[in-house]
Amino acid sequence: MTTTPGNLFIISAPSGAGKTSLVKALLQTGIDLSLSVSYTTRPARAEEVDGQDYHFISREDFEQRQKQDDFLESAQVYGNFYGTSKKWINDAITSGRDILLEIDSQGAQQVRRIFAQAVTIFVLPPSLDALEMRLRRRAQDSLEAIGRRLAAAREEINHVREYDYVIINEKLDDASQELRCIIQAERLRTAKQLARHHSLITQLVNISVP
Ligand code: GDP
Ligand code: ADP
Ligand code: 5GP
Fold this sequence. Notes:
The protein has helices at about 20-30, 60-65, 85-95, 105-115, 130-140, 145-155, 170-185, 190-195, 200-205; strands at about 10, 35, 40, 55, 70-75, 80-85, 100, 120-125, 165-170. The protein is of the alpha/beta class. It has a domain at about 10-35 and about 95-205: Rossmann fold. A 5-stranded parallel β-sheet has the order 2-7-1-8-9, sandwiched between helices. Strands 4-3-6-5 form a 4-stranded mixed β-sheet. The mean pLDDT is about 95. The site of guanosine-5'-monophosphate has 16 residues, from strand 5, strand 6 and helix 4. This is Guanylate kinase.
């Protein structure tokens, strides 16, 4: 398989572990990374912006898009549907950009099957109590939705071994630094550097010593 110059990163976590906060902190550092905006049937939270956090769509619209094969992957998570735009990903990958998907473990499995080079990162909370506290403090989901998310946490955490990297999000600053390190190290892999700096490396390798 040929190596594409861009990287596809996937980040998953049980709800409330801090995946979205980590990604926000990462993007604020000015790192050159494009975030895929998923389609979802979940209602928008108070601070969420349509087209920025998610494309919020109806169940009918979601099913229509599924029929049209618009999604690279899709899954039902905590009772709502989520999907990643195939066209957006293809355009981004072809242009050599690094992209990041915030998707659940079912979605990660589907993308890995299509794109084996994906680099996968799993975020864990420091404890189940901390997870519960964060979900309650976030206060963005109904009590029923919080209960559903907590009940699903163990099942989601069970997938941790399928991932390339694990971050334990105890202190947000430390965890976001770790996320940045993973991305930087992956960018420096020889195969990626050969793809990105093809002409420079060819030139350097072919220099004849006088
Ligand atoms: P939060 O992660 O607790 O803030 O809750 P969200 O409602 O934003 O996300 C719910 C779940 O859906 C999480 O596990 C996300 O990773 C996952 N998710 C979000 N977008 C996608 C997507 O496009 N595809 C898949 N498969 N999962 C997604
Ligand atoms: P996810 O996207 O994984 O569901 P969020 O990023 O929305 O998680 O974080 C859930 C809640 O926990 C938010 O209210 C967030 O501010 C808080 N949070 C995230 N990381 C930490 C941390 N390291 N310490 C304390 N609170 C955190
Ligand atoms: P929330 O509703 O709290 O934003 O997200 C709940 C879960 O859905 C999170 O674990 C999130 O990663 C996942 N999720 C969000 N978008 C997608 C998506 O496009 N595909 C899949 N498979 N999961 C998603």
